[in-house]
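Researcher: Here's the sequence for the chain we discussed earlier.
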Amino acid sequence: MDPTSDAERREGAPKRPRSMQFRKRSKTPPPTPDQARRQSHIVQSAWRHFGAPAPAIAFLNTPHAGLQAQPLHLAIESDEGLKRVEGLLEEMTLRA
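Model: Thanks. This is the structure I predict for it:
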């Protein structure tokens, strides 16, 4: 197949309008300022405790039997949940 004929065919084809939308909008509402504050706080605490991103991320996103929830979700949910997760991190530090 001749490449020039292919280019000529594309030039004659109607062009689709370009969209500035790069990804679909999320159906979940953005976090509240309090949720964002708690998330930032617990991520920083986990990072300090573990000293590296991979174990901190694994801890925050893995369901914990003692908490009966994922630490990140629990911490974001309420100030009480944040305290529970911080308490667990402190216990883990004392045991180490």
